[in-house]
Amino acid sequence: MFLHRQELQFKSTPDEPDAVYARKLQEVLGGQYGEITVAMQYMFQGWNMHTPGKYRDLVFGIGAEEFGHVEMLATMIAQLLEKAPLGITGDAVQDDPTVAAIVGGTDVQHAIVAGAGARPVDSMGNPWQGTYITASGNLLADFTANANAEMQGRTQVARLYHMTDDHGVRELLSFLLARDTMHQNQWLAAAKELQEEGYEQLPVPSNFPQGQEYTAVSYQYQNFSDGPAAAEGSWAAGPTPDGKGQFSYHEGPTTTAPMPPPTHPDSRLYGTTELPNTVEKIAGKVQDKLHKE
Amino acid sequence: MFLHRQELQFKSTPDEPDAVYARKLQEVLGGQYGEITVAMQYMFQGWNMHTPGKYRDLVFGIGAEEFGHVEMLATMIAQLLEKAPLGITGDAVQDDPTVAAIVGGTDVQHAIVAGAGARPVDSMGNPWQGTYITASGNLLADFTANANAEMQGRTQVARLYHMTDDHGVRELLSFLLARDTMHQNQWLAAAKELQEEGYEQLPVPSNFPQGQEYTAVSYQYQNFSDGPAAAEGSWAAGPTPDGKGQFSYHEGPTTTAPMPPPTHPDSRLYGTTELPNTVEKIAGKVQDKLHKE
Amino acid sequence: MFLHRQELQFKSTPDEPDAVYARKLQEVLGGQYGEITVAMQYMFQGWNMHTPGKYRDLVFGIGAEEFGHVEMLATMIAQLLEKAPLGITGDAVQDDPTVAAIVGGTDVQHAIVAGAGARPVDSMGNPWQGTYITASGNLLADFTANANAEMQGRTQVARLYHMTDDHGVRELLSFLLARDTMHQNQWLAAAKELQEEGYEQLPVPSNFPQGQEYTAVSYQYQNFSDGPAAAEGSWAAGPTPDGKGQFSYHEGPTTTAPMPPPTHPDSRLYGTTELPNTVEKIAGKVQDKLHKE
Amino acid sequence: MFLHRQELQFKSTPDEPDAVYARKLQEVLGGQYGEITVAMQYMFQGWNMHTPGKYRDLVFGIGAEEFGHVEMLATMIAQLLEKAPLGITGDAVQDDPTVAAIVGGTDVQHAIVAGAGARPVDSMGNPWQGTYITASGNLLADFTANANAEMQGRTQVARLYHMTDDHGVRELLSFLLARDTMHQNQWLAAAKELQEEGYEQLPVPSNFPQGQEYTAVSYQYQNFSDGPAAAEGSWAAGPTPDGKGQFSYHEGPTTTAPMPPPTHPDSRLYGTTELPNTVEKIAGKVQDKLHKE
Amino acid sequence: MFLHRQELQFKSTPDEPDAVYARKLQEVLGGQYGEITVAMQYMFQGWNMHTPGKYRDLVFGIGAEEFGHVEMLATMIAQLLEKAPLGITGDAVQDDPTVAAIVGGTDVQHAIVAGAGARPVDSMGNPWQGTYITASGNLLADFTANANAEMQGRTQVARLYHMTDDHGVRELLSFLLARDTMHQNQWLAAAKELQEEGYEQLPVPSNFPQGQEYTAVSYQYQNFSDGPAAAEGSWAAGPTPDGKGQFSYHEGPTTTAPMPPPTHPDSRLYGTTELPNTVEKIAGKVQDKLHKE
Amino acid sequence: MFLHRQELQFKSTPDEPDAVYARKLQEVLGGQYGEITVAMQYMFQGWNMHTPGKYRDLVFGIGAEEFGHVEMLATMIAQLLEKAPLGITGDAVQDDPTVAAIVGGTDVQHAIVAGAGARPVDSMGNPWQGTYITASGNLLADFTANANAEMQGRTQVARLYHMTDDHGVRELLSFLLARDTMHQNQWLAAAKELQEEGYEQLPVPSNFPQGQEYTAVSYQYQNFSDGPAAAEGSWAAGPTPDGKGQFSYHEGPTTTAPMPPPTHPDSRLYGTTELPNTVEKIAGKVQDKLHKE
């Protein structure tokens, strides 16, 4: 159950309108690694979780915070659009190249569809979609996904920080950067704790009996490109992070198999295949040709 | 540049046809965490990389291997479909509930669109799409994405392992499980090496000057749900994984701000707003009503 | 800002596992008119609203409730999947047509991707997407969209009610039906109030100066099909709902214009066009042919 | 059956080329509420309709008209692009910021993909898709969807009206505005007629036995946000639009239930769960640590 | 301008209900190569065409016919669904495996969303989308696209023909097969005529000055796989179809270039790169390690 | 199996940075007819093929080459972005309209998401998707699809050639144009060979017994538009390309059928239908009205 409070977690007001920047901010609102993604991802992980207690409380606790970040970004975007030129003729697009340039760089649906409002899309206008989230039920896999999401997110916010010098916007971004710092650390701590407490080990999923995998290649680097430096990394020699093997290095595959013969499905699927009478047919055609010549 | 060799990295032939299983295998071919995803993800990371040498050689080396995994799965799927009932009337769907059930569980486009062939889609028929991949240019973020992809992928393959007892299919899966074990280990090793060699630290991106984030909340757990056990985790007290702070715990937000007032964009965007003469209008209407009564 | 409470608004537990029904329930969780849609739609309307007070409080108040409905459905789906056959070989798919039929009717990603968990998708596995929502800033238009969403939603829940006889599921649906009844009524009441208070009139948007539209056809039914009964409706004669005109009826268009001539863009876009020397070219070719014969 | 006539319903020729505006016009051609949407929506409602006569004639009559509007917009867009700078080097993008700005604001696929032609996409380049339409078979729900579509559409056209001062474009828009006025009125009239004639009542679907919903909350406003003004609306007290109840107001939920315990699906789905030996494992680890210290 | 007539081009009524088949038929209604695709494709080609006369009349003439085919399929699907079991509990899904199997094979949105009606989706439930169509303005390219669309379409209809023995359905399919035969022939005839009349030649686009392409490789087969039989085809020796060259065969590339060095974009994009002080940093770390040991 | 070599097939380095052009190049990398499409299309055709030998070797041989073209374009795009203004504040967007215009025309995700790297998207930012490819198992249909793909691709590259005067970019494009010339010719040659050798004939699929189609309309042009010139083409009279018939011309349909009556599905799907007591209800209402008046 969610209760909404008409307050923000942090001040979210720009000094100046800036419709081009509003479009860029959409990335961290509605993009692959935007706030809608992490909010939904953590909540679905909670709803699908198979263990009560601290891990479930954690995903619910942070998931709810992230919905508040969606709200902070949406209100910021609406304010950036409020007094900005959005292509109305009076904006003199035709005459002033600066204004024309600005209008050219906006999300034109901000004006036409949302009437100067935020939208659940990324910075190129692609709608947010459910495939952005990850919630597998395996917590070590999912917390690694979460750590990645916070890293990608913080990288994007850091880039956006340098694309404006609006003091109000930067303040909000500095807050989001700090929360991303926290959340990166937290997911890495949680992933470590999961392993220390015996919930899950590497390789994920750890309770699949490893004897049933083809162990001859479980710790073997096989190089399918011709870059020789790949042999120099810690992934090509020495102990493996899961503590269960030693890396080895091999140029190309260590096993190969012939490609199976082509399939011949039911003829009523009308694929092209070797017909029994192909040879005859061709022979006939060749003869026809010879006759004509 | 890619050279194709008409061999497979491993034997990929089922013992029996099974169209329902063919559909399920599509998940690890063309799903969010399927082989197309990792192949494309590693290659784009290589093409966008800003540093030569072992890390680039690594993504190219594994990316090319993954394209070969796409091929192994596609040929397996085509063989699983080869002699399976696919809804042709002669399959007696109407009469035999077992056959009907099988046909009901297939990807019907396998027959109608591909003529008993594999497709670049997931197990529910959603087409593979470019948003599945991650290639940010920041290697610590991206290698964490890669580790996650291999964990999710290995979890899915492990689940699929129990959904068949076909010996040929299981052999292929046992090979893929082993490679996922290798690749999980390898990306974690590479992520560690990146940090040890000073390329990148936590929090990602590490060269953003952390003094510009709102540091008061950089290591503070803020609990937006009412689960008290969230306070018990290693993310609520003690040193942080980035080695730069101490976690603290707080119930709910530590900062709040009033929600900014509603925006008032250009009236020619025709949003609904308080009109200057609203009060008058309403007064008039009320009077009209009173008169009528 | 959102606070999460680990309680549900209503009891949400099935009597029996049912993976096929879990898939169907996804429609009202993650479909075009599912709970994610209305939750996001009302919230974006709030964030983009240009007027403070009761209308904004309304969308925030109901939007937050709807996120709780997402949660009730997600937990219900996870429970429906908990003990259900999901295609694990031990489920004896091969032998028992009933089990095979059940497995064939499931969302196979429930098992392979989510490990028996809910997903942000509809009943055919299409991911939820941002284009499902409507938030234009014009409240009369948007409240009409909301009324429609609640009507479509209640219709879908009513259909789902007859697709199960599980008492626990039906109890949850009876609760959702009641809330949809409330929300239908509420949006219609709000739309009426908007008009009575002078915020907005028909036709939407009402402050566009109607004199600038081509008024000759503003209230004219033009019948482009050959169904004569279209003339019998209240849309073909009598006063119009906006109180500003009288409907009239006309067979087909009342105005026509010739189609403009084809365009001739820059030749470096390599479209096919009448070449200046076409005639000559053809003449030459014909002559060539004659010579050969 | 459709017959095409090489005439337009109204004059559709711009005074001047304008590629930036051509892109904006795509919204009302191929966007969520563009003409393709309404054309397809009304036709599918006709094909799926369960009652002959005036309602079916109506959707067919207007649906066919809307396909003609698609045509008017497509020909207009092709003409706007005909002589406009589209990024050909000779357009001197590099030197003249005005031209650069114009080119920057275009749909670059207009040139690269369509060779200066219209496309079935919206103003941000997202392809039109089938999920934009609504055709449930319940006519009161669907006519409400139609009224909403015409309101959103007219709002977008009104916004676009102010984004150009090209006389030819404005003439076409003034025609479309008038038809949207007509269609808004018509769907509202049809929705009213449906109810008056007893086809359907509120709440939709009206023939679902309302006694089977959880009536205690059927007319109760439950406020999940902290905005007190929500209590002031006509949705919080007084008779309900469906004529069957009285609105009441409540702060937050009137019913709650504990969240069900976490699920424990088959272990071969490899979700993370409380392992039987977790306690022992942790104890062992702690002891190990103590020994080391 | 389109006029709709409430007649079909051909009889479209099934003998028996069949919801599973209704789902399959969706492929040729709303799939990649379904009737919506060809209808929209031909119409957009017409609206974007740069030459008046027979080619434009052709695309308009056939495009309008195809919209009628959409209608025939939609009405057929609605009838196939009319009396079929759609998962209503009374259908006894739980008890009768045959019925369960049938329901498992349906498009469940047919019942839940459309109330037993057709939908603008393919046979796996993916919504139709604008990217399915092709309209480049180059007629030789586009007519080749059209020929392909009719070939794919006829192949799919032929497959569907064998998936039912319902006489009514087969009659409709036999009609569609005949029209696909016609349309395949027609587009090939039109493509030939375009070339004979000098509108366009091979290679498309023919008015691009071929001297500006890198002619050394214009007619050279370069084999990037190790299949030797590729050298045996008519594409590896002899005259080329465009009449302008001779095919030659080469194993692998005939030109190569070193991969350019990695890029080094602005450091504020926070990609990982060789830092100036990397060497020093690593040296320091190594020393630290040595000290500790 | 794929082996990667760290070389390019051709030199791929621009003379100057150009972020706007980098965005445009995305079309031929990740668009509907970009290099990812043809690479994946040819490979899937190979994996699904039912005949060994030269045709399979051909698709594998060219498919692998196309993956190398993806790589050339991705490295080119990364270089075009390397030193280009990407919206960093120091780029002085606010002051210099030329820079502002440039930034406005970029793919803003190039900077925010990829840190100046290439992405698997088209020039409007839509992600590449699996529905772009065609692999039906019928080789004549598929080779026609391939010919079309190369024609559309070459047309797009030719257009892009005129949108830059960067010598390095043009060199790469001249190489791609030449390969597209080759590939167009090759697919047309292969399609011809398929027919000459008796694998497949027109109409596709040729082994469907043509006597089962409704032959009365197999070669009949039916004109559903009012353009009279459609009768002048070679598709309206004379022998058909498949060598099996004679074209004829007819104004409009030659067969028609009445539209079937509306369907009446199960009432628990809550569609609107003629209720048994409708007449009574209306009569009652009318009487009520009369009483009131």
UniProtKB/TrEMBL annotation, chains A, B, C, D, E, F:
Transmembrane segments: none annotated. InterPro entries: Ferritin-like (IPR012347), Ferritin-like_SF (IPR009078), Mn_catalase (IPR007760), Mn_catalase_dom (IPR039377). Pfam families: Mn_catalase. Its cofactor is Ca(2+); Mn(2+). It comes from Pseudonocardia bannensis. Ca(2+) binds at D57, N223, S225, G227. Binds 1 Ca(2+) ion per subunit. This is Manganese catalase family protein. Keywords: Calcium, Manganese, Metal-binding. CDD domains: Mn_catalase. One of its GO terms (molecular function) is metal ion binding. The lineage of its organism: Bacteria, Bacillati, Actinomycetota, Actinomycetes, Pseudonocardiales. Belongs to the manganese catalase family. Mn(2+) 2 binds at E66. Residues 230-276 are annotated as: Disordered. Mn(2+) 1 binds at E35, H69, E150, H183.
